Write the structure tokens for this entry.
Amino acid sequence: MEEFSPRILPLLWRRSVPARKAVGRPPRLTIDLVVSTAIRIADAEGLEAASMARVAAELSVATMSLYTYVPSRPELADLMVDEVFWARDLRGEGTFRERVRHYAERTFAMYRAHPWLAEVSRARPPLGPGMLAEQEYVLAAVATLGLPLRQLNPAATAISAWVTSAARHEAESALLRRTTGLSTDEWWLQRGELWESWFDVEAHPTMTAIWNGGAFDRGADEQAQDAYEYGLGLLLEGIERSAEHDGTERSAELEGIERSAEHEETEPAAELEGIERSVEGDDRVP
Amino acid sequence: MEEFSPRILPLLWRRSVPARKAVGRPPRLTIDLVVSTAIRIADAEGLEAASMARVAAELSVATMSLYTYVPSRPELADLMVDEVFWARDLRGEGTFRERVRHYAERTFAMYRAHPWLAEVSRARPPLGPGMLAEQEYVLAAVATLGLPLRQLNPAATAISAWVTSAARHEAESALLRRTTGLSTDEWWLQRGELWESWFDVEAHPTMTAIWNGGAFDRGADEQAQDAYEYGLGLLLEGIERSAEHDGTERSAELEGIERSAEHEETEPAAELEGIERSVEGDDRVP
DNA sequence: CATGATTCCGTATACCCTACGGGAACTAGG
DNA sequence: CCTAGTTCCCGTAGGGTATACGGAATCATG
């Protein structure tokens, strides 16, 4: 059984690998230089601008030369993404809330510095050190609460999905402001005709009521921020609550998930003390 | 003060406008035909496939002819999006939970039928009837709880963001499966090398513990679904809870938001009964 | 039949990615 | 110094994309 193994993993993990002995014509560039140049262009002008031709030109090299360093364009994008994820450098300690706040702050800062991240799909992300560092950090944050092992992953995934979703939304807004020259509020203002000419009051009673109540007076971006903070608060409260009364009240709902957990349920974080270092078993299906 | 008014609004709301008197050369096509053709192509082959040239070819018309019906490609995308949003046809009644469930089901169904929706940015969406119908439906669902007026929008936005985010993720997964020929699990399997050669156990103790506890045994798509349902449960519970004890416990946090609400706070849904039909005032900044 | 309105569309420009294959530049070993 | 092996560099060519512009075609009306 011949299995295809993608060429991207050694590139993503290139920092974990010792330098190869020099043989053959010496390269003019390095992968890191290519990646950082692409990131710099994308920061300034968006992901599309960081084309193979453009990156090569920036490095005073022919387009095709880049293909010695990177298999193809999508792989370059993967490398760019994992680079900035790795540079996010999550290392805050403290309580659950403090860690989540640190994660959120760093993530928003990352998307502000590199708004093109919002132009990259989040499905099947680059499996490099940056991505795994995020996973580990958020899981560790949730683990401080002492939740049952099987609940860590859903909780951590919910948190990172919520935070990332908001950061991406903000980044998209920034991108659009740059490409269109219009802020979100200016964009809305330009569409005032919607309310004057097209909006049907009778078909939208709730919106109209909120409107008349004056609850639409914040800008669109601010409303999104409000919703983000409101939702994050609910998620964190809910997760903390399910840690407090240890699955007694909600056990009925969770039974399906916890069914096959055979590890100590009273002290769920105990596994984190004595970690089995072996990763040799091949019965893992991620 | 000359204000630019976008040409897209009359197209989005074309169903609300009476037919124009026929004068000049009669058109061979209609906007609806163009839009539905583009949707059909995108359904089958993705958004990129629905290029101007391709849609025109499908209609046996020259590429440039489409520009009589649609100002440009982005506007065509807007029309496609609002078309399927409108066709989602949200009309379930019932309790808060029932309405949210209906909204979620219809939304997932929509993204399954039109996975290319995940390829379109959610920022600055088309302001057509479909988009507004969604807003109204979710707001009305939340309004059944009797929340204070100023809390309706954050709650509704949180719900729709969470549901949409999950539906988009599933759709992206489907798109990737089609373009790459690999399911998400096959994609992971192909990257088994990650665990064998690159994963650093000591740097990722929490992941390793979860691993050894066997809590990673579900497929990636299933894990995402778990996180979605878990998070949705927390959001709905939290929203319901804040409706039960009417802002007594959380009033400190909410004070900043509720500050300028001068409408009856004890019966917050009262505005929905007697709606002021006037939308003439121009002091609204959406 | 003339006029005005509207639709139709050919051409031209400027991007994008990358398969292929040959030449250039280096090291190691003799 | 010479040669083999290895690796890097890159020119060409082909098939995509969106749309500005201007003129021809086709209708209702007067």
